[in-house]
Amino acid sequence: MNVQLLTPERRDTDLNELPFFDTTTVYGLAPFDERTLAFFDTFSKKLLADRSVNRLPEIAALAFWIRRANLLQIQKENSHLFGQAHFSLSPLGRVFHVCPANVDTMFIYSLAVSVLMGNKNLLRISARMEAPQITFLFDTLNELLGLAEFALFRDYIHIITYPHNDAISTAISGRCNARVIWGGDSTIAAFRDFKPAPRTRDIVFADRVSLLCIDCNAFNELDAKGRENFARLFFNDAYTFDQKGCSSPQSVFLLGDEAAYETCVTEMVSLLSGAIAGRYDTDIASIASLKLNRMVDDTLDRTIDHKWGDNYVTFAALRTQDATEAALPHSCGGGYFYTRRLDSVDGLLPFVDNKLQTVSYFGLDDTALDALVSLSRGEGIDRIVPLGHALDFNYIWDGYNLLEALSRKIYLER
């Protein structure tokens, strides 16, 4: 069974020849091993040394996340896992990652968390991930793995790509200790047909939807500099991956009375349209056609009754009689946002279900944030973050602590 190997080097190879499947080798890396910290810190420095990273915020964010200082902070936050009298933390073993195509840096985050715990890793990425920044990541990673000081990691990092192939996916699934499946509902369903070993641990990331909650008065009171910053943060959250990231907002809920709402939505759309026009690097004609088709469908389906905006940003007002519906509509992307006015955060309740992942916010006070936390109990919200941080990766994701999920606790009694 041949696959295309991308890391630690580029070549075609027989799947069974990968060291990933060698069960006779020891696991030489302990969780948060100093050698692992040095490896990712060097990776970070090499990424940041390239001046083109200044134009690639997603790569810059990745580089900052894998630097030593951040990884040590993560270890500190998880001190309850280390130095315990009755258990020792151990790598889980061989981890197979099925990586998403919609957020092109996610595979490195998934890899980093798993290697930090001392696991050996096989990552499958989409052949469609051919953007220059992805090539840059692979070239940098392979350069590191070619250095003598990091040769150890050639047994821990293997990235492959192959077309949909049930035999290959089944073979891998039956020989790994964990599968990390990022591809959404359809990918999860497909891989559940590829029977894993009885003790294989599945960590799955289903289709999710996210929203932004804004206090109208807080926006209306912004000065020119504040509005410029707001537009920058909004763009980073919503447009970096064309709203395709599960944590990118697809709906915008505005808190305030009717007058504040009308002022807020009108001025916000005008602000965002002007700011985004100069930054959004895409085929705007194709995006305009996509959004027009969605708007027609939403109007015929009586989902929306009004809209603001243009080809760069569209706010489509959800019909008020739909307020009791317990599902957020899915945007077509490209700057198409559903919106509604609410009197308070409690008005989000009908839309909170197990599909709602991230609520980003702007201008909310502590009382409103506490109300959001209350709404998250049970089958609710997994992340609550300020505007501009929706796409920030964290080792706590979709309710998992990935460090714990990708490790074992070895009980010890002396």
Automatic annotation (TrEMBL):
One GO MF term attached to the UniProt entry: acyl-CoA dehydrogenase activity
GO biological process, one term: bioluminescence
Domain of life, per lineage: Bacteria
Pfam families: LuxC
Keywords: NADP
Protein name: Acyl-CoA reductase LuxC
Source organism of this protein record: Taibaiella chishuiensis
